[in-house]
């Protein structure tokens, strides 16, 4: 139930805070007093569109806050828990709208999305807005009412999960099929390019070694000649420097005993001789190892050229990049090869999901067809009590060729209010007053079967008056025995029902601005309000007496 409502800076409301009891709450007021403003604020709170134009003072934020007491079910608890909201029975919902039209939403001080508010709204309160009786001609609304009567909520949720799954799988299949067809056209070329890269046997270390070897072989003659020239310098005029150094060491060794300083010089010369001898040997070995081979050069050149050609074709400068392209092509080709397998797997998933959807749709259809006669009889009987004794309400359920959010059914509601007149399409034959009565009966039946904690009727009595209005009021009052009901009305017959009566009115504040206020009225004040509704601006004694008669024991 809606326990408390607080509104700040919304339309004509500057500040308003009010608590509501359970049972029936009547709301009246002159046209333009601001009754619809209250409903607008509640709608905003439950996910309605935020509009900066609704701010009374554009320099301030609009804040709407309400406290709801609800009986939490598994689905509601799951939704709230996903947002970190633990208390699932007391919800304090707050919506703040700034001057730029942007809004922020909170539940128990936790920020939430507007979408979450919309999801919860159907579990918190049902709002019947003005002219909503036009929905009676809408097949979706008709099916929703029938499903509530059939208690199809859980079954319908299961069906919709499978229906959404089928649509998603079909979409995935279509996308994958498109990718497969596109890839098939490119795959032959990709395989050709990949084969060339595989044939190249790309190896970073080998490629570097081949480049070094090619550089060496390309300059082999020059290198070999230079090494030979250096070796010749070790033997000028055919005399070996190494041999001469050996002779120098022998000569010094002969006089070492006679001149000790020569020993150190002899050792240094020997070290130089050994180093030069080693260098001479290494130069000779290097020179001999270099093979001037045109055949080997050609082999290496062809190998390197094949790799360079691949680099040029793929517009890269390094073998690393070429290897990356090979890896990517392997993935693309492998993916294309797996398309058939993926499509086959998706087809199997689609078949299974569609079988389950069909089973659920058939169960929904069967339950609807079984209950439709009883549903129609209950509506007919309820409408008959609202002074349409010959009312006939018929529900026709047929199968459709395609699936929708309700299954595979088409619903058609026919109505006749007159004797010996066959029922025809509901929206075509019923008058405004008749539609209001039918809508009230449907809403009453929905409330009975869904356990909705609160319901708001915003002038559901359009087009009726007199004894019909009184009977509609009795039906609304009866509803309030099991739930909280708000009834915004212009009819005294309905306004006299229930224990709580709120009056919405306008007045001029201390700043000279028009503001909307609301207050509870009792006893004489309520009599005067009912009398005003009966007679207009001039309150007659007869109107007051009539008001007292309508209120009966509800007034002192």
Would you kindly provide a written description of the structure presented here, covering whatever features stand out?
With 556 residues, this protein is α/β, with parallel strands linked by helices. The chain has 17 helices and 15 strands. Among the domains are: 1-130 and 459-520, P-loop containing nucleotide triphosphate hydrolases (Rossmann fold, 3-Layer(aba) Sandwich); 184-336, no CATH class; 523-556, no CATH class. Helix content is 56%, strand content 18%. The strands form three sheets. Strands 2-1-4-5-6-7 form a six-stranded antiparallel beta sheet, covered by helices on one side. Helix 4 (139-150) crosses helix 11 (319-384), helix 13 (432-450) runs parallel beside helix 14 and helix 16 packs across helix 17. It starts with a strand and ends in a 5-residue tail after the last helix. The relative contact order is 0.13.
Provide the fold topology.
Blueprint (H helix, E strand, L loop, with lengths): L1 E9 L2 E7 L4 E5 L6 H11 L16 E8 L4 H8 L8 E8 L5 E5 L2 E3 L1 H11 E4 L10 H12 L2 H47 L4 H15 L1 H14 L7 H15 L5 H29 L4 H21 L4 H66 L7 E13 L2 E10 L7 E2 H4 L2 H19 L3 E5 L7 H14 L4 E5 L3 H4 L4 E9 L5 E7 L2 H13 L5 H11 L5
Parallel strand pairs: 3-13, 3-14, 8-12, 12-13
Antiparallel strand pairs: 1-2, 1-4, 4-5, 5-6, 6-7, 9-10, 10-11, 14-15
Helix pairs in contact: 4-11, 4-13, 5-11, 6-10, 7-9, 8-9, 10-11, 11-13, 13-14, 16-17
